[in-house]
Amino acid sequence: MQLSSVTKESLILLDKNWQTRGEIITALCQRLFDEGVVSSKEDFSEAVWAREALSETGFEQGIAIPHGKSSTVKRPAFAAVRLTQPVDDWPTMEGEDSVSMVFLLAVPNDDDEGHLRLLSSLSLALMDEQNVAALRTAPTVSAFLAQLDATEPTAEKKIVNDSGKSIVVITSCSAGIAHTYMAAEALEKAGAAKGIRVYSEKQGASGTEDPLTAEQIEQSQGVIFAATLPPKGRERFAGKPFISTSVSEPLKDAAALIERMLHQPDGIVERSGESASPSPQRALSFGARLYQGVSSGISYMIPVIVAAGLMIGIGQLSAFSQHHGCDGDRGHPLCH
Which pLDDT does position 284 carry in this prediction? Predict the structure, then answer.
């Protein structure tokens, strides 16, 4: 099955002069509605913007992959636009906020046709510089689609100078498509370059893919939870060092995450699977330590402040009594 099976020529728009992220999303939602992919452009647009609020959907090479998961989506599909000039208001992983090609993915709550994996393949194809370069120069919509269909499956990662080490990874995001698979791909590539085998379990919109085996977990040095949603089956990793991060972080610096996993994990997954004990190095953030120190200081000072207050009160009462003639005469009204 080819990528063109989850879109059509009328959903691919070339060389548009749209100038803002809002204009692009509105136009692509309208096109998906016009083509019968979504039953309500308002509801779908709301789902897309809700996802935009979670983390960046702009990536390297000026590509953005916004996506929305909603009951209003009738079938998995995508619409795309190639812009004549980059828009400068689209948050990206690199912080440049510049995007010139946008693929809007429509994700249904239930996948009856098995096309969701193709949408993930699209996301992975857009990580390839050669594919993106060819899409930028495609003269027609049909040539654009032909390039997408010519995309080769992701090659198996070749381990360089195999260290014999491995880590396991859980990735997931709210829609379960673009970031879920791209994060796993980025970690697998970074691991291979370091001589570390990375086994990734994708908890996507179509369920769990490539589930980790008990042997893979047992032999691993630890686990990376790169997830927007709570990882399923966390208790499987009891006793393993772990780090938790957003699903977008591996796309920024996957190699750094692997180093952090190996040398400075967040803690150890507890047997309950519900919480984890922090490691000494990362037990508390600076802000948390500052708050804890101030709180402790206040706690120690409270008895001193109370005692001082009592002493001041007694002193003022004594001064008041003397001022009003109480010389110890018990018959004086102020001495009672």
Answer: 38
Q: Cα–Cα distances in Å, from 168 out to 165, 202, 231, 243?
A: 11, 11, 13, 11
In 3-state terms, what secondary structure has residue 77? Answer: strand
Q: Note the helical H segments in the chain.
A: 21-34, 41-52, 116-125, 129-137, 141-149, 178-193, 214-219, 249-263, 286-323
Q: Where are the domains of the chain?
A: 3-149, 165-278, 289-335
Q: Which of 29, 67, 115, 179 is catalytic?
A: 67
Q: How far apart are CA 124 and CA 310, in angstroms?
A: 71
Closest of 277, 285, 5, 243 to residue 119, by C-alpha: 5
Q: Who has greater pLDDT, 272 or 303?
A: 272
Supply 284's token pair: 């508390």
Q: Which tens digits make up the pLDDT trace of 197-249?
A: 999 999 876 678 889 999 999 999 999 999 988 899 999 999 999 999 988 88
- Return the CATH superfamily for domain 165-278: Response regulator (3.40.50.2300)
Residue 326 annotated in active site: no
Could you identify the residue written with the tokens 């037990």? 283
- Choosing from 29, 115, 173, 179, which is the catalytic residue? 173
d(CA 325, CA 132): 95
| Domains 3-149 and 165-278 equal at CATH topology level | no
pLDDT band of 300, cuts 50, 70, 90: very low
Q: Which of 169-178, 235-244, 249-258 has the highest mean pLDDT?
A: 235-244
- Assign domain 3-149 to its CATH superfamily: Mannitol-specific EII; Chain A (3.40.930.10)
